What does this fold into?
Amino acid sequence: ARVDFVLDPGAGAEGYVTRSGEPLAGAVVFHFSPERRGVGTQSGSDGYYRLEGLPAGQVIIAASMTTEPGPTRMETRDLAAGTLERIDFDFPAAAASIEGYVTRDGE
It folds into this structure.
């Protein structure tokens, strides 16, 4: 008996995660789709990430910072089978903070 298998080549996404244009290491990049459980990775020291084995069709690719609480960036794309889509994410600069004490008449 002969058995034939047709393998789905899947799709992929790659790109850079930056913060004000500078590489952001350790950002979590993941995808959502109705067809398949999420696939995720972290950006390297140069901010580069690569996700493979994604389903062809519409997916949501998201990136979030792990170093501090902040926004998540999301992109919705239609991925074609056998392709690698370039998706870059850029986060804004960190907000400034100030520390100190409030006193009354120097006390």
Summary: The chain has a mean pLDDT of 86. The CA atoms of residues 101 and 107 lie 10 Å apart. The chain has no helices and nine strands.
